[in-house]
Design a protein that fits this description.
Layout lengths: L1 H26 L7 H4 L1 H27 L1
């Protein structure tokens, strides 16, 4: 069950990051990096997705080290 939850969290956060990246590219972040500051909601979403990805990844690594 824990494997399934971890897999869903990893996949969901990865998809969320891809969606945020596509939105940033559509807004023109490659030409004007200040677009990220102008869109705090999208920036916060990216940060939250990264934190979920990191925590789900570290949760799996922590379990492997115990054995």
């Amino acid at each position: 069950m824990k494997f399934l939850i971890r897999a869903i969290l990893l996949l969901g956060s990865l998809v969320w990051l891809v969606v945020c990246a596509k939105q940033f590219v559509a807004l023109g972040i490659l030409d004007h990096p200040s677009v990220a500051i102008d869109n705090p909601t999208l920036l916060i979403q990216t940060f939250i997705a990264l934190m979920i990805l990191r925590s789900a990844w570290m949760f799996g690594q922590e379990k492997r080290r115990r054995f």
